[in-house]
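Appendix C reproduces, verbatim, an entry submitted by the partner laboratory led by Prof. M.T., so that reviewers can inspect both the input and the predicted structure.
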Amino acid sequence: MNNLNQAYSLSISYHQITVYTGSETPPVIDWTDDDILQGFATGDQGVSFEGVNNGKASIMVTLNGDEPQVSIDRAITVSFTHVSDQVYITSVMAHVLSFSIPEGDYQLTCSTSQQPDQDVYYVNFQTM
């Protein structure tokens, strides 16, 4: 389990980052043309956000966090129901990050900031 409010490295592949709940096994989320246009796709107990670039990225997860104090290139907010003791974040063929967040309904925001050395993803779970 990882701590909130710290940066973690994740290798982004297939231009997507997936946030999900339930089990450590990521859900299979099929992207439609409309999903690609909106920048995210939802599936069983999870959501995949379009990654800006493939490669090394930094992930920061917060619970009821404030807006990141950096320039944000894109922010997407979706409803998210968390149903287990852990929430997971991964990309295709990447290791899985896990975080302890209370079960419940959230507004999940994934904000992206492109930095010279790597992209940074801010994942915030806002209590509804």
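The longest strand covers residues 104-114. Additional entries are available on request from the coordinating office.
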